[in-house]
Design goal:
The mean pLDDT is 95. The radius of gyration is 31 Å and the shape is elongated. It is mainly alpha-helical. The chain has 20 helices and 12 strands. The structure holds glutamic acid. Glutamic acid (GLU) binds next to loops. The site of glutamic acid (GLU) has 7 residues, from loops.
Length: 479
């Protein structure tokens, strides 16, 4: 049997990194087993849905390269099926009408000390009406056991569940039923989703099996379940939408590569054999639900950043330059909604930039770091780090000597990285400074900071005139 999996996000907020992990594991499973990856948008919570979030789901999956084989279907298009399932369960005697209000239920719970619904209407045989909800009649005893592909055997005693609402008096069908009806219609064979949905599963299994006994419903095999471990932050607490950076798009906008993100997400609860840096082909080849861990997975931005840097380093220069375009391009349409680069767009020179690529590619961990690193090439004014200026120029007379001599020497030498290097070595020897210390005042004068791409190559790219202008300006600034 060809496996059929689905990713069923609700468009109620930014696309969460946890959703990204769930979608990836479904996609890997489908690709590994030659199955179908179905996209269904669960949009029945009309109060919390927004069109932009629905679009955000499609954009996120597209950015990650998780192509879907069917859909996107909308849950709201299947309301007829959901109601038909309610009718079938009613006909089959699995439901009963209940007119208890929330206040009445709470008052009885408070009196008995037992939480949840007490089965008050179970035997009242109320007719259905505009003020009755429909509840599922739980089996009196026993338990539902699930062989979860990740969590193993999980048993839910029925007495702990209580008769639950399937359709509100308003006619709204509850999400847990809508979700499984859609899985039945789509012939889903494996439900791979977050662990937060594990408690819903026994109710879904019971309804699924009940539907299989209803004359008006087709018999559909129960899917296998796999509940993926929760994502936690550094404090080992569930990732919080408010406190933790969980929106996938913020990683895209900070210059993480989709390939690095896919690789990192795959490590959240699973790992390939051998090296953790694994491209898509290897992930597909090795992915195995049975190897997914039950322990919470730490969403570690530092590790993600490290992996991103590895992917950036492994790119060809051309691919890297191309990936940088949204951060440096003169056309605002390319970088919006990100911040504008720190130079006047018309000063950007694509040729100079591509020559700078080899100097910066191995020194950035995200693409968002690129503009600051090349700003000295395109900016009119040097943005000075005042602490650096103080340390190597203002408070250091030798630093000022280095600048004064460099202005003379750099006016004459062949303006290539190699000659500039030799000139500065010689200059340093003349004033008794090792190269490292002789470089610092020059670097600060020209780029404004003490860290950056290799100095001599940078000077060569900047050119003689601009280099000399900056050395003179910096000297004047501190004299
Ligand atoms: N729509 C649910 C969610 O966004 C997923 C339900 C499921 O995968 O079964 O959490």
């Amino acid at each position: 049997m060809t496996p059929r999996v689905r990713f069923a996000p609700s468009p109620t907020g930014y696309f969460h990194v946890g959703s990204a992990r769930t979608s990836l594991f479904n996609w890997l499973f489908a690709r590994r087993h030659g199955g179908a990856f179905v996209l269904r948008i669960e949009d029945t919570d009309t109060e919390r849905n927004r069109d932009e979030w629905r679009q955000g789901i499609l954009d996120a999956l597209t950015w990650l390269g998780l192509n879907w084989d069917e859909g996107p279907t909308l849950q709201s298009a299947n309301l007829g099926d959901h109601h038909a399932a309610v009718e079938a369960l009613w006909e089959g005697g699995y439901l009963y009408a209940c007119d208890c209000t929330r206040e009445q239920i709470d008052a009885r719970s408070a009196a008995t000390g037992r939480p949840g619904y007490d089965g008050h209407c179970r035997t009242r045989e109320l007719p259905r009406g505009p003020s009755t909800a429909l509840r599922f009649r739980m089996p009196d005893e026993g338990a539902t056991t699930i062989e979860d592909l990740v969590r193993g055997t999980v048993t839910f005693p029925h007495e702990a569940i209580g008769d639950f609402v399937v359709m509100r008096s308003s006619g709204v069908v509850l999400y847990a039923l809508a979700n499984l009806v859609d899985d039945r219609s789509a012939r889903i064979t494996h439900v791979i989703r977050g662990e937060d949905l594990l408690p819903t599963t026994p109710r879904q299994v019971l309804m699924w099996e009940a539907l299989n006994h209803c004359a008006s419903q087709e018999r559909v095999d129960l899917p296998a379940y796999a509940h993926l471990p929760m994502l936690v932050n550094e404090q080992r607490k569930k990732l919080s939408k408010r406190k933790d950076p969980v929106a996938l798009e913020s990683y895209r906008d900070q210059g993480y590569l989709p390939e690095a993100m896919v690789n990192y997400l795959a490590l959240l609860g699973w790992s390939p054999r051998g090296d953790e840096i694994a491209d898509r082909a290897r992930l597909i080849d090795e992915f195995d639900l049975a190897e997914v861990s039950r322990s919470p997975a730490f969403f570690d931005v530092k590790k993600l950043t490290h992996i991103n840097a590895e992917y950036l380093r492994a790119m060809t220069s051309d691919a890297f330059a191309h990936a940088c375009r949204p951060w440096v391009d003169p056309d605002p349409a390319a970088w919006r909604p990100r911040a504008a680069p720190p130079w006047a767009p018309e000063h950007f020179d694509a040729d100079v930039f591509s020559r700078a690529v080899p100097l910066i590619q191995t020194r950035v961990t995200t693409l968002a770091e690129v503009p600051a690193m090349v700003a000295f090439l395109f900016g009119d004014e040097v943005a000075f780090d005042e602490d650096a200026v103080a340390a190597v120029l203002a408070d250091d007379p030798l630093g000022r000597v280095v600048l004064a001599v460099a202005i003379e020497r750099f006016a004459e030498v062949d303006f290539t990285a190699a000659s500039l290097h030799d000139a500065l070595v010689e200059l340093g020897e003349g004033v008794g400074l090792p190269l490292r210390r002789a470089q610092a005042p020059v670097r600060v004068a020209v780029t404004g900071t003490r860290v950056g791409p290799p100095l001599f190559e940078s000077l060569e790219l900047l050119g003689r005139q601009r280099t000399l202008d900056r050395l003179r300006a910096a000297l004047a600034r501190v004299s």
